[in-house]
Amino acid sequence: MNSPAFSKTELIKKFPLLEKLNRQRELTWINPLLSPSGNEKLTLQRADIEQAAARLQRFAPYIAQVFPETAEQGGIIESPLVAIADFKNAVQKNSDAMLQGSLWQKCDSHLPIAGSIKARGGIYEILFHAEKIALAAGKLKIEDDYNILANEDFQEFFAQHSIVVGSTGNLGLSIGIMSAKLGFKVSVHMSADARQWKKDVLRSNGVNVIEHEGDYGKAVEHGRKQALATEKCHFVDDENSQQLFLGYSIAALHLQKQLIENNILVDAEHPLFVYLPCGVGGAPGGITFGIKQLFGNHVHCFFAEPTAAPCMLLGMHTGLHDEVCVQDIGLDGLTCADGLAVGRASGFVGKFIEPLLSGIYTVADQRLYDLLTVLQDSEGLKLEPSALASNAGIVALQNSQEFLEYVKQQKISLQAMANSNHIAWATGGRMVPDEEYQQYYQKGVKS
Ligand SMILES: *Cc1c(COP(=O)(O)O)cnc(C)c1O
């Protein structure tokens, strides 16, 4: 798993952009491999997304029963799309930036059960696994009312099986809470610097939390080893899991309904820009896949990464994907955006989205705090620092030369830019304890 030792000097010589990454400059990278026929040759298609959505639908009555907070939505785990015009005004007032189009926030930060975007992929993967083993054991049929999963005999059945995951925090929360609810034995491997409150929430849910010195990569490796050595054990592989990826992609189907409800058109005259915070890549990659399947070339997806951990940019720009990590170019990967503190991107995701992704931009930690405070003051929305990387894009891109060239190259007219819609995908925040949130907020208050 260790990377072949790339020499930093050689990498920078071959890819001059890496010099700026090394100096932690905020920058915008446009993906040269974006293709207008990008949807055609993918190994997953729209039918896969629809099958995955049908699976969540089968589980919906059970979810509504065991997580009463989801009952009102019929056991479907979804989040609001809200207009953030006051945020736009506040940003324009604080700087000379002129922002085009209408701004929206997709509030996965407020998803039920786990309070982050991981409530999509993580929960989907556990449900997929639970269904698979219950079907194989003859305990469940597809036509059954899945409410029976809450019965004691199912708890006993799942207790013979275990789930293991390595996580910076939020994935562990969603996998841990869902697995424990079904009755699985579940272990979450975390790096020692993962937030204490996340470990506390998990332990109070009966999850076995194992802490590791060192970074996320090490936590994942330990998890993988433990899982392989254990019978009836499923390892949730954040870097390679197709189920996680599909779980995220389902978001696009619901977003489509929300766009219609809000009279948001997506066509040549009304381009849609979506800004997605990226860690290992599964969440933003799955959502990009879903959105591109539904809306094609009039939607433009950009990933956001912290300047200290731009692993996807590094992997895609060099074409080395998961063979290279940010430490190879002299970065430490340490950032307040703990959901994005990943040194090595998923190779599976990087390659998959090569023809779909418009670009990636990087954001400094202080900007995340600044925007956290502006968003709280203008819209009353509570997000964690990672999530603000999405809002940062709306501001940063429209003021970047690279983006202006992209707009020209995509033949997006000035009028279309004026009609454009921008969705900042908020990825976490609801569950952050107030005391911790106040500390974030204070760091963004202008003296
Ligand atoms: C996990 C996470 C992301 C990114 O998801 P990846 O699948 O790791 O790319 C973004 N924001 C938050 C808050 C997260 O927890």
Automatic annotation (TrEMBL):
N6-(pyridoxal phosphate)lysine modifications at: 118
Keyword terms of this UniProt record: Lyase, Pyridoxal phosphate
Keyword Secreted in annotation: no
The enzyme's E.C. designation: 4.3.1.18
Cofactors demanded by this protein: pyridoxal 5'-phosphate
Molecular function via GO: D-serine ammonia-lyase activity
Pfam families to which the protein is assigned, alphabetical: PALP
Ranges for domain Tryptophan synthase beta chain-like PALP: 97-403
Signal sequence residues: none
InterPro entries xrefs: D_Ser_am_lyase, Ser/Thr_Dehydratase, TrpB-like_PALP, TrpB-like_PALP_sf
Primary enzyme class: lyase
Similarity comment text for this entry: Belongs to the serine/threonine dehydratase family. DsdA subfamily.
Name of protein: Probable D-serine dehydratase
Source organism (scientific name): Colwellia marinimaniae
Designated gene of the protein: dsdA
